[in-house]
Design a protein that fits this description.
This protein is mostly beta strands and 793 residues long. The chain is built from eight helices and 41 strands. The strands form nine sheets. Strands 29, 32, 33, 34, 35, 36 and 39 form a seven-stranded mixed β-sheet that branches.
Length: 793
């Protein structure tokens, strides 16, 4: 198969191409590094029988097994450069453990492990993987410039494949590079004799792109060759030499190193021109603007077991050619350039080997710029600054905006694509303290990196100016005389040893921002000495300090009820023994105490002439169930307000720990923690059903930190049979959040009510999650129930 000229593929009569009079596959060898081999690597050699140079920019060589199965894929090695008239062009492929002689310096490098005895090689105009699996289908593909099948290959030109290939023999054309589109006739077996574009032969180079020579002259490998067209480098594990680039950023703390970027980009949008050079514990000696040649080993660094990888050069050596050079242009990151779709899927498997589609998927777009300078302008902050010097922005201001400036996470299948984490490489300047809704005005620029926590991030060398948009903590209204106010608040591992400032701020949230609810379900109250692991399980000192602080902030003198867990059986921080606690204002509501509840004894429901009642109050829901293994057990209490009984169930479901990240290499990500939360939801649902079976008008409030979204199967299971209504869904969509994570405003905390609760006013009180200075990472919420209008009958 061939082309009529160096730059255009001819029209294809019927299903066949014209034999090539210019570029051809001149030699193929798959035995490199095998037993008995002399050469250490496989190779494909191209030749040009024409009278003009043949441009290979945007071309590829591709390999298919000799007997392809339904799951076999063509493996792609991208090309650049050209083949001189009468010249050769050498493509190095995978290395083996045997052999003693290196190839001459390769003109292009891939990592395809070719078979020594049977396979198909195609020279392709383009870098998209072929899909044909038969000789006829491949003959009809106009992108194929030339094709060689060898051994017993089913995909070949003409009457049969070239024969005689082995660990010690290549198949090659004659010196005239004749092409009749018959592999068996055109190629014959012989001793491998690779030649590169410089005319070098085996032993004159190391196969990695060096080949000796002037140490100030760039090698043949470029950054885009290293990055390749997938998430994994085709050169991983190989040593590359004198890779040219301009230093665009230097990191002198943590994982030290620097980024280089090649200003001479190729034409393939999938291949990044930037890469991180990891120097380990050594502080980099290069500076931004230096023009360098870097030699090192190509590595894929995985920040975690389920994350994507970062392509790096490790154990580097560098030569600085000049300083003060202009930096390569930055890739613009904005609502126009970032696609609407988030990430490709692979049935839960790895997407690493899939060809990038940067025009289709946002995560592919970011990956195609990994290590390159990127820039965005006038971006809204959607995740507040944290203690680690990080914040989140959105480059898509209209994407699922919340009413207070964040970005709402509203479904599994449509993640927000405009979010980017921002860090600063300037260790001499203080990092801005930004709240959600603030703005990084002007331009932020820096290399694009990737980490376990959040995925892609900008390592800013230039940080926009913070504009404070004045976000304020909310204050909800006070309940009316006939309204029972019930709230939930995760107070983030509160214990008696905490600083008074933390206790006072949390207390202010209850007394002022929540306006002193009648009942407050607290999550993450620890025992009296916090994480000290000495068998202490009581929380009396913790609650005394907290309720005293609430009183000092203007709130009521709350009383409390809880059940102390068995030591180290409820998860959370070891030794902390977190639990749920009821606070209640005895001047407004009474608690019905019934003895018998403890850490291992379940409360249950009995039917009486006056309705349902608990056998133990406070009590726990089936603490022996496997659903609660190493997790907090729900706390159930029976309250009376204006003569009406109200059941409150406080929850803290198991965390999302162990789930694969949204941005990781396994797609769609596994959410393994959901299994236990769904079992927990089923337990609570069954208990609520027992209440309603005893009294269909039982007024029940289920609330707490469920660690799952309003659209999750956990909430669906909890509400099964329509026994509970999630109040978060009654709010406008832009207000449905209680927590901010990785720049996503999302709902983890909930209040749900039974059908008898017909008249209520519900509010999420935003005082923490959107702020850099926060007392807890969760926002509280409250429901005010008009009990008089919810009376039975």
């Amino acid at each position: 198969m061939g082309v009529a000229s160096a730059f255009a593929i001819t029209s294809l009569p019927a299903a066949y191409a014209t034999p090539s009079a210019t570029a051809v596959i001149s030699e193929v060898y798959g035995g490199g590094g095998n037993s008995g081999a002399t050469l250490t690597r496989d190779f494909v050699e191209l030749g040009n029988a024409g009278s003009a140079a043949y441009d290979l920019a945007g071309y590829s060589v591709q390999y298919l097994p000799g007997a392809p199965s339904a799951s076999s894929l063509w493996q792609v090695t991208a090309l650049n450069g050209s083949v001189a008239p009468g010249g050769r062009f050498l493509v190095a492929e995978a290395a083996g453990t045997g052999g003693s002689t290196a190839l001459p310096t390769a003109d292009a490098t891939g990592s395809v492990a070719m078979s020594a005895t049977s396979g198909t090689i195609a020279l392709v105009s383009g870098t998209t993987a072929l899909t044909c699996k038969t000789a006829a289908d491949c003959a009809a593909d106009g992108r194929i410039v030339d094709l060689v099948g060898y051994g017993s290959a089913l995909v070949r030109e003409g009457s049969g494949p070239a024969t005689g290939a082995s660990n010690t023999a290549a198949v090659a054309r004659g010196a005239a590079l004749g092409d009749t589109d018959d592999n068996a006739a055109d190629l014959s077996a012989g001793t491998p004799s690779p030649v590169n574009s410089a005319g070098q032969t085996p032993g004159s180079g190391d196969g990695g792109g060096d080949g000796g020579g002037d140490p100030t002259t760039p090698g043949t490998v470029r950054v885009h060759d290293i990055q390749g067209t997938t998430r994994l480098s085709p050169l991983a594990g190989q040593t590359v030499t004198r890779v040219p680039g301009i230093v665009t950023g230097v990191r002198t703390t943590g994982s030290k190193g620097y980024w280089i970027q090649d200003p001479a980009a190729d034409a393939d949008s999938r291949t990044s021109e930037g890469v991180f050079v990891y120097t380990g514990s050594a502080t980099p000696t290069v500076g931004v603007g230096d023009s360098v040649l870097v030699s090192g080993k190509v590595s894929e660094y995985y920040p975690s077991s389920t994350s994507q990888s970062v392509t790096e050069l490790t154990a580097p050596t560098a030569t600085v050619l000049s300083s003060g050079n202009a930096l390569p242009a930055a890739v613009t990151v904005d609502a126009t350039s970032v696609p609407a779709a988030y990430i490709p899927t692979a049935g839960g498997g790895s997407i690493e080997s899939s060809a990038l589609e940067p025009a289709v998927y946002a995560q592919d777009f970011y990956e195609s710029a990994e290590g390159m300078r990127v820039a965005f302008s006038d971006a809204r902050v959607v995740g507040a600054s944290d203690a680690y010097g990080e914040l989140w922005v959105t480059v898509k201001p209209d994407e699922n905006a919340t009413t207070r400036g964040g970005t709402l996470y509203s479904s599994y299948d449509q993640p927000n694509t405009g979010r980017l984490e921002v860090m600063s490489l300037d260790t001499t300047a203080s990092f801005p303290s930004a709240d959600v809704g603030d703005e990084l005005s002007g331009t932020t620029t820096g290399p694009l990196d990737y980490s376990t926590y959040g995925g892609y991030n900008v390592q800013a060398t230039q940080l926009g100016t913070l504009v404070d948009n004045g976000l304020k903590p909310e204050v909800t209204r006070r309940q009316k005389g006939d309204e029972l106010a019930v709230a939930t608040y995760n107070v983030e591992n509160l214990d008696a040893l905490d600083a008074q400032e933390k206790i006072d701020r949390l207390a202010h949230g209850v007394a002022v921002n929540l306006n002193s609810p009648d009942v407050v379900a607290l999550e993450e109250i620890q025992d009296d000495n916090g994480a000290t692991n000495d068998g202490t399980v009581t929380s009396e000192a913790t609650l005394k300090r907290f309720t005293d602080a609430i009183r000092a902030a203007g709130g009521p003198r709350y009383q409390w009820r809880y059940i102390a867990p068995t030591d180290n059986q409820d998860g959370g921080e070891p030794g902390g023994n977190i639990r749920q606690v009821f606070l209640f204002n005895p001047k407004r509501v009474s608690f019905t105490d019934r003895a018998g509840g403890d850490a291992v004894t379940a409360t249950s429901v009995v039917k009486t002439r006056k309705g349902a009642k608990l056998t133990a109050s406070p009590g726990r829901i089936d603490p022996a169930s496997d659903a609660w293994d190493n997790s907090r057990k729900p706390l159930v209490g029976e309250f009376v307000f204006h003569g009406e009984t109200v059941f409150v169930i406080a929850n803290h479901f198991t965390s999302k720990g162990g789930d694969q990240p949204l941005h990781g290499r396994y797609q769609p990500p596994s959410r393994s923690s959901e299994t236990q939360r769904q079992a927990q939801a089923a337990e609570v649902n069954t208990f609520v059903k027992s209440l309603l079976a005893a009294d269909r008008n039982a007024k029940t409030v289920v609330l707490g930190d469920l660690n799952d979204y309003e659209f999750s199967q956990t909430v669906t299971t909890l509400t099964d049979g329509k026994v509970l209504k999630p109040l978060i869904t009654t709010l406008p969509a832009a207000e449905r959040y209680t927590y901010v994570y990785d720049g996503n405003s999302q709902t983890l905390d909930h209040i749900l009510t039974s059908p008898a609760v017909t008249h209520y006013d519900y509010d999420v009180v935003h005082i923490n999650a959107e702020f850099a200075d926060q007392a807890s990472d969760h926002d509280p919420q409250v429901v005010r129930i008009d009990v008089s209008r919810c009376r039975r009958g």
